[in-house]
Amino acid sequence: MTGRVLVLGGTGEARRLASALVADGVDVVSSLAGRVAEPALPPGAVRIGGFGGAGGLAEWLRANPVDAVVDATHPFATAMTASAAAAAGATGVPLLRLQRPGWSAQPGDDWRWVDSLAGAAGAVQGFGCVFLTTGRQGLAAFAGLTAHCVVRSVDPPEPPLPARTTTVLARGPFSLDDELALLREHAVDVVVTKDSGGPMTAAKLTAARELGVPVVLVRRPPLPAGVPVVATVDEVRGWIRSRAI
Ligand code: NAP
Fold this sequence. Notes:
Elements: E1 4-8, H1 12-23, E2 27-32, E3 45-48, H2 53-63, E4 68-71, H3 78-91, E5 95-98, E6 111-114, H4 117-123, E7 129-132, E8 148-153, E9 165-169, H5 176-185, E10 190-194, H6 203-211, E11 215-218, E12 229-230, H7 233-242
Parallel strand pairs: 1-2, 1-4, 2-3, 4-5, 5-12, 6-11, 7-8, 7-10, 8-9, 10-11
Helix pairs in contact: 1-7, 2-3, 5-6
Bound molecules: NADP nicotinamide-adenine-dinucleotide phosphate.
């Protein structure tokens, strides 16, 4: 493979994809939003920062021709995913979405599905200690909670935050022992998470099951119509090979 591919990244699979494509001989440019202070950088070229919406990305694609774009952003990165679909449509550059499958409940799980972070804030009313693992963006939805909230994020969260917040700065993956210890230490009685999927952050779900703690899960937003979706790095490689990139 000898072509040039733009990988919209910021996830573990985007980094694994960049490594695999570089090893395949593809000229990879990974794009990061620039949210995390010290991001784990993938191999290949890296650009950092927003494009300026769909129009900005389309302009970037015209100035920096690539054979394909792979949108490997997080399942909840809705703005970037929508921009990628619009810009690919406007420029005619082939686009593939790489998205890991969501989580599925197992026997013993007490999962409560909601459609939004605001819905999650409503679902945890009445609990004593809420473990918020939804990332530092969007925490304002929980600012009105009076419960003790344990917020875990890579970089320090910014206000507005719940009045009684304990911040735990950490980057996954997390082990089951880590998660059991954290839930016990703070006497967590409900966990809030997005349905991110994947193994990197799934141990909290196992820990919650083992301790009989309910989990409030935020459903994934829908994907743009007409964009092909795959779940694995190998499927992306197959797609790229099939296009003779
Ligand atoms: P978002 O709401 O879809 O993105 C907001 C804006 O950030 C986009 O419109 C775009 O700015 C810029 N952006 C996002 N991803 C980018 C990328 N890979 N390269 C260049 N610009 C990017 O997404 P988000 O939720 O803020 O997530 C930002 C990044 O963090 C993504 O790369 C995502 O994969 C990662 N992440 C997100 C979550 C989450 O829960 N949302 C969790 C873990 C990791 P312009 O409009 O100016 O182009």
